[in-house]
Amino acid sequence: MTQHLATDPGSHTADLPPLTAEAITPARPVDTAPRFRRAFTLDTGHGGVARATLRASALGVYEAQLDDVPVSDDVLAPGWSSYEWRLRYQTYDVTHQLRADSADDEHVLTATVGNGWYLGQLGWQERRRLYGEHRGLIMQLDVEYDDGHVQSIRTDASWTASGSEILSDDLYDGQTIDARRREQDAEQVPVRTLEVDAELVEPLGPPVRRQQEIAPQRIWTSPSGKTLVDFGQNLVGWIRMTASGSPGETITVRHAEVLEHDELGTRPLRHADATDRFVLSGGQDTFEPTFTFHGFRYAEVTGYPGTLTADALTAVVVHSEMPRTGTFRTSHDLVNRLHENVVWGLRGNFLDVPTDCPQRDERLGWTGDIAVFAPAAAHLYDVHGFLADWLRDVDAEQRAADGFVPYVVPDALKYQDMPEEFQPVETAAIWSDAAVWVPWALWEASGNAEVLAVQYDSMTAHLRRVESRLSPTGLWDQDFQFGDWLDPDASPHEPWNAKADRAVVATACVVRTARMVAETAQILGRDDDAATFRALADLVQAAFLEHYVDAEGRIRSDSTTVYTLAIVFDLLDGTRRAAAGERLAELVRQAEFRVSTGFAGTPYITEALSSTGHTEEAYGLLLETGCPSWLYPVTMGATTIWERWDSMLPDGRSTPGR
Question: Who contacts 10 (Cβ-Cβ below 8 Å, separation ≥6)?
């Protein structure tokens, strides 16, 4: 087995024995999520237990117990990293679970391993087992005694495995739990070791944990006779349920974000089944499907014995542990709700990886989403560790792809067939710019230059890759670009077909990125690099002005997004900047303050308006309630931010499209 343990001088595990545990998997198949087991007794004659530390990881997701007591509150550990190169492990202090007076007792270390991101479905093509074929466990318990003696219990061929009550588990499809199997003495089978080539590393980011519980707001019967539950808030997590009934009876719980025609609206989930099944034991059972997660507000419950009441189920909110750092409140109730929707959207999408959505068959770390959202995220929560860890995966994927920053990180799409409209797959503005924009956002939020120093090679590699893609004119006009993705005037089936010229958007982004990298170099004392990157920014800005902006300040494609980017990215001189501001305000008024920008322009348009003296138009945009607008979803009862401005149509139907 090949393992490389990364420890740095500041690591809190640097003084522990080397992590030499082997990865193990059942030697013959078990028909459920495997539960690994190792019994041991404490070494005697060395005094009391001074410290006991458990380190664990998995090919999949794991839950560990010592003497039937969970070792932590973490869930879905070790999370999702770029498994080809980085496999994170967790460290737990379990000293309190090994009593000084228990030297002669037998202790039992167990861990159950689910499919997680390693083996489960990822992406919209129903692909599974992208990273391997077998679930595996890596675990090492180091017990240090008063006299300095260390006893180590490591995963190796001496462990055993058995089946469990978890009959099936998938992050997209859901989990099936058979409570009858909890009390059964499962057959123990031998294990074998697995080869692991990834580097075992400590996480920089926080664990995923239960954060909040929400009670049902309403339980009723749908027109088709189904029992529906509304929790009143779109959330990410699962439902904890209690029930008693005949042995073998099955309760089925389906999840969705919306209702359609007064029934559970599962069509937007595409291939994600989002269904949990609970098989009753005959006694009083409590079920909690912790090897999956769902994005939902509503649930449909069938097979519940008797009448379903609110005290039988609770929605458990799950996301990465992050301290709240920023708040916002106004005198306008709809704006306040909009802000709360942003907060809930962040909570739902910051589950170990910054994702695009938490509910359907996607849930990927789209780089473009976090590139534009990182500044807001860093205001609302302390996301430094969360994003710093993800940036390590950006760097790993980038190094393996010759400087190309993929559209999602970890890059599950490299194992799938990309849609024709994404071809050829190459560095793309905003999406690949996440390698620069995200660390810069963290620097701006914290003033800590460490993230810039750590990511500097990644940032410069991205910029040099972009430079290599420029045409002889100095423009970025020859590659596939997402452009102003999800322009509300584009067809829902062609979200890339925006009003804004994609080359204009991409070239504007080059200037912004080059300036950020130049300032980063200056901060880090790399003066020669700073001068080089400033010169590149100047060259591309000059090309932008020459080819895309006329003397009166009109910009090619004459749309709100191109003026927005030119203003906010500081591409225009005084006269043309003022003219661009006037034209932007005019276009906003012509659109009757409805949103006319897509992915590229929306984050910046109110800044562009207010910074050019058009505050009235900026407020007009913010306070508009017609579709499409920021407040339209609020008027439709949205409790998170929708992906599309019209994700729910005025007649209650969800929007078709990708």
Answer: none
The answer to whether residue 494 is catalytic is: no
For tokens 């690591």, name the residue. Answer: 11
Phi-psi region at 355: left, alpha or beta (left = phi > 0; alpha = psi -120 to 50): beta
Place 424 in a pLDDT band, splitting at 50, 70 and 90: confident
Q: CA 318 → CA 73, 291, 299, 413, distances in Å?
A: 11, 12, 17, 25
Confidence check: pLDDT of 100 > 80 = no
Q: How far apart are CA 367 and CA 328, in angstroms?
A: 26
Nearest in space to 506 (alpha carbons), one of 524, 482, 529: 482
CA distance 13 to 563: 51
Selecting among 144, 362, 397, 617, the annotated active-site residue is: 362
State the Cα–Cα distance between residues 645 and 655, nearest whole angstrom.
Answer: 10
Q: CB of 222 within 8 A of CB of 31? A: no
Residue type present at position 131:
Y
Q: Is the pLDDT of residue 386 over 60?
A: yes
Q: Give the helix ranges, DSSP H, for 350-449.
A: 367-380, 384-400, 434-446
Alpha helices in 101-147 (DSSP H): 116-119
Q: What confidence category does residue 102 fall into, taking pLDDT thresholds of 50, 70 and 90?
A: low
Question: Cβ atoms within 10 A of the Cβ of 104, count?
Answer: 8
CA atoms within 13 A on the CB side of 390: 31
Each residue of 1-25: pLDDT tens digit?
333 333 333 345 668 999 999 999 9
Residue type, 556: R
Other beta carbons less than 10 A from residue 39's beta carbon: 13
Query: Checking DSSP bridges between strand 136-145 and strand 150-154, what pairing results, if any?
Result: antiparallel
Q: For residues 183 and 179, give the distance between their C-alpha atoms in angstroms, rounded to a whole number.
A: 8
Burial of residue 383 (number of CB atoms within 10 Å: 0-12, 13-18, 19+): buried
Task: Give buried/exposed letters for 477-500 (b at 16+ CB in 10 A, else e).
Answer: bebbbbbbbbbbbbeeeebbbbbb
> Could you check whether the bond before residue 34 is cis, i.e. omega within 30 degrees of 0?
no
165, 202, 300, 643: the active-site residue? 643
Q: Convert the pLDDT of each residue in 182-200 to its tens digit.
A: 988 889 999 999 999 999 9
Q: Examine the residue annotation and report whether 552 is marked as an active-site residue of this protein.
A: no
Gap between the Cα atoms of 209 and 204, Å rounded: 16
**Total residue length of the chain:** 658
- Asked if residues 298 and 266 have their Cβ atoms less than 8 Å apart, the reply is no
Task: Give me 603's structure tokens.
Answer: 């984050």
Pairing mode, if any, of strands 218-221 and 227-244?
antiparallel
Average pLDDT on 348-364 reads 95
